[in-house]
Amino acid sequence: MADLVLALATSHSPVLGSAVEDFALHGERDKANPGLLDKEGRPCAYVDLLAAADPTIADALEPDVIVRRVEACQQGIAKLAGMLEQAAPDVLIIVGDDQQEQFLEDNMPAMLVYWGDTIENDVLPLPADAPSYWRRARSQFHEEHARRTYPVDALHGLHLIEGLVDRGFDISHSRVLPRPSGEGHAFGFVHRRLMGDQPIPIIPVVLNTYFPPNQPTPERCSDLGRAIAQTVAGWEDGARVAIIASGGLSHFTIDEDLDRGIMTAIRDRDGDALRAIPRRKLNSGNSEIRNWITVAAAAQSLTPAWQHYEPCYRTPAGTGCGIGFAIWN
Questions:
Q1: What torsion, rounded to 10 degrees, do the Cα atoms 65, 137, 191, 187 define?
Q2: Cβ partners under 8 Å of residue 14, min gap 6
Q3: Sequence-ordered list of residues with C-beta below 8 angstroms from that of 242, at least 6 positions apart, any chain
Q4: Do residues 9 and 245 make contact, with C-beta atoms less than 8 angstroms apart?
Q5: Residues 327, 305: contact at Cβ < 8 Å?
Q6: Cβ atoms within 10 A of the Cβ of 181, count?
Q7: pLDDT value, residue 145
Q8: CB 171 within 8 A of CB 158
Q9: How far apart are CA 76 and CA 80, in angstroms?
Q10: Closest to 27 in 3D by CA, of 35, 37, 15
Q11: Furthest-apart CA atoms within the chain: distance in Å
């Protein structure tokens, strides 16, 4: 019988590779972003967010606050990497989203399991006019043009697909990535930031968190997590399995109430609260919270052991990224 030994959740924002002095540059990009949404998921302009923002957000832009938050985020990444190394699972299930990196409008699966023998991670060159802070952020954790091949646990991936089908999920599958650009950033972040020189074989579970009309509901994500745990428990080979959510929390307009509510629900093992998150709240970058809902449901047999949250603001209008980390063991 297989054993789920560890569950993790992590944000994967570019902020996690950015120097303190670059936060203001990210903020300038926010000010020009035509796709901003308010906390209720309604399109709005930056000036509208600024007019409605809590004026105390400006205090969070003080250099000493940003320094503390950057340091805390780096410590969070290190803690998760250490826990993953210590647990040394045989396979890591990564629940992440694809932002039109591999799956486009010609085929946008709501839920997909990849089970090729390997998966490529290809760092594509940035555009010639890319701002310098983009380059600095990326150089924090990998080399330009570095292409790597990582192992996939194809056999357990097949077993996961079969188990999910048995439990009522019409799951999509892929053994070959449709685009030559390699795995999406949700999966690359785990490889590049949380694994060492001997990567753990993975099973990528890809959710369409971003793109209507077939985004899984919070309830369906929770059901998926439970079905993943049930399927893993039925494997008869004694595998030691870990699972991780990659993405979130709220961005690009930070919603501290939403983020802190999620962290509280995880701490209190309140699956009903996670299932009840309004869909209008799961928009834009917030949509990646679906990955957390899935993993929290899969981790019901484990104990919430540690979590940390940093609202990393970068403008007085409240734009930025809610950075979260969680561990169950």
A1: 90
A2: 26, 134, 137, 138
A3: 4, 5, 6, 7, 8, 84, 87, 89, 91, 92, 93, 200
A4: yes
A5: yes
A6: 14
A7: 47
A8: no
A9: 6
A10: 15
A11: 58
Query: Between 144 and 211, whose confidence is greater?
Result: 211
DSSP single-letter state for residue 182: B
Span 173-210, pLDDT tens digits: 999 999 988 999 999 999 999 998 889 999 999 999 99
Confirm if 204 and 243 have CB atoms less than 8 A apart.
no
**How far apart (Å, rounded) are the C-alpha atoms in residues 95 and 294?**
8
CA-closest candidate to residue 258, choices 286, 235, 234, 231 = 286
DSSP H or E segment with residue 172: strand 172-174
Output the average pLDDT for the chain.
92
Work out the number of other CB atoms within 10 angstroms of the CB of residue 116.
Answer: 15
In whole angstroms, what is the distance from residue 317 CA to residue 57 CA?
8
CA pair distance 326, 309, nearest whole angstrom: 9
Residue pLDDT, tens place only, 129-165:
666 666 566 555 454 446 899 999 999 999 999 999 9
First to last CA, the chain: 18
